[in-house]
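Our consortium's second objective concerns turning raw sequence data into structural hypotheses that experimental partners can test. To show how far this objective has progressed, the report includes one record in full. It was chosen at random from the queue rather than selected for favorable results. The single chain below, 290 residues long, was entered without modification.
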Amino acid sequence: MTPTPAAATPRAEAAPPPVRYPPRTTAERVARAAADTAVVTGRNLVRMRRAPADSVIALVVPVMMVLLFGYVFGGVMAVPGGGDVREFLLPGIAVMTMMNGVATTATGTALDADRAVMGRFRSLPMAPSALLAGRAAADTVRAVGEVAVLGACGLLVGWTWHRGPGDALLAVGLLLLFRFALIWLGILLGLVVPSPDAAGVVVWPLVFPLSVLSTTYVPPALMPGPLGVVASWNPVSSVVEALRTLFGNPTVPADSWIAENAVAMAVAWPLLLIALCAPLAVRRFRRTAR
């Protein structure tokens, strides 16, 4: 009886070698990051359109403040050195409007992180930088709309600029630069806070004192000594006074070096804030996405 041959054991097929793509050039990486940023920006703008409550509140509140301070309290407010009270107040209200957007940025960032949206995005073949850059770009677009609405409302109540269009555009540019710096502060806070609900709790105690303890309503000379010094060196005061100067609106008398160089400091403060907050936000984002 002849033994039957053993069944041949099937041989495992060798795995194909991994596909190796050529390294991307710098230009290709930049183009990819720009395209991904545009997609994320569009996504954030769509979210704003589908949830318009925050946008409506952000536009209605400054309009109400202009009307309130311009017509209700305007008769009892005195402008330092004389001048129209609405022209004195509108640059400060514009800066406060930009500061109020910090809570929206922080809440939106915290909401994405809380829902693990960023983790899902990181699993896609896209540039990681697009997530934060898309948030910053979308909020900047929103800020442009807020500035346009606030400027139109100011013109209706009697505010205007008295210098050339170049100075007016420079003032708007400084205002948006300040908002862009605050966007990165909001992104950092949104990545640090434990939940979206905590974003507003953390932001408002930071924003409110900075907006009030400034030259928005009262000159530093009328404040107690230490508070006057703090108000003079407050970045909000530099931006407010720079806008008043460039628009040709009534200003607070300059009694210190920083007040005399308000336009230069209105550029320096936002750049310093971006230099501090942007790297910290990127570092925190990388730790969160792991």
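The partners drew two points from this record. The chain has one domain: 34-288. Residues 34-288 form one domain. Both points have been shared with the crystallography group to help prioritize constructs.
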